[in-house]
Design brief:
This protein is mostly helical. 60% of the residues lie in helices and 0% in strands. The protein is built from 7 helices and no strands. Helix 1 packs antiparallel against helix 2 and helix 1 runs antiparallel to helix 3. The longest helix is centred in the middle third of the chain and has 15 residues.
């Protein structure tokens, strides 16, 4: 499913249009799971992009790659801050998990998109410079 979703995303971003082939790949994943999918005609570029992104989140939720998807799409900080808002929703408020997610979301900063260069490496190689956000 990861490869099919990568193809659908790459096809959409490369051509800036929803191809029948990309739609069929995503639909095959959803059909396997027994999930109803809207018709091909109901998607424009923006809605199909959101559809593929959400499907990646559902299908690959335990693979540990969501952060890197969000960073690639340029929405990591925004998405993490969304957890703060979601935690205040009455359906989730008060649970330990929502409080934990909100605290993580509150602490995310733009610098978390890149990793710092380790101090040891900076000390060994004086030509290295620290990432500007760190």
């Amino acid at each position: 499913s990861d490869v099919l979703l990568m193809y659908a995303e790459a096809s959409l971003e490369a051509d800036n249009l929803v191809s029948q082939e990309a739609y069929d790949y995503v639909k095959a994943i959803r059909d396997r799971a027994g999930v109803k999918t809207n018709s091909y005609e109901s998607y424009d570029v923006a809605s199909f992009r959101e559809f593929v992104r959400n499907e990646r989140g559902r299908e690959l939720c335990f693979e540990g790659i969501r952060k890197y998807d969000l960073i690639r799409w340029g929405i990591f900080v925004e998405a993490m801050k969304g957890y703060v808002k979601d935690a205040s929703d009455q359906r989730w408020a008060g649970s330990a998990k929502s409080s934990y997610a909100a605290e993580i979301g509150r602490s995310v900063q733009p610098k978390h998109v890149v990793l710092p260069v380790p101090s040891v490496e900076l000390g060994v190689n004086t030509l290295l410079v620290q990432n500007p956000l760190w």
